[in-house]
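#structure-requests
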Amino acid sequence: MADDVERRGSDDEEYRRAALYVVCVVGVAALVFAAVNVWAANRGACADAQTHLCDTPSESAIVIGPSAVVLLGGIGAFIRTYQRWRAGNSWRTWQGAGWFLFILMTAYLAIGAGTIAA
């Protein structure tokens, strides 16, 4: 009985792994954002513009690049959720990580699309 409760409850080590996973995914997304931002700023097409987001390719890359990283990270977290569930281990932490990443991606897309539209 105690073993069954322990498997379904929260596992501190698994929580640390999921939290580290989320931090790494967000860190990679931030690096992609920085790289795309540098690329957009140094493009010849935007050399005379006031802003480095002067055309559609620059705007699209700034929005889509980091969003794709977070989307793939969320899918990875849900795959890990399924693997943990199939093994009979605690899976809720990974599901939470996946939903957090999906919500973060949605918020980033909404803010980015609002900025581009303005």
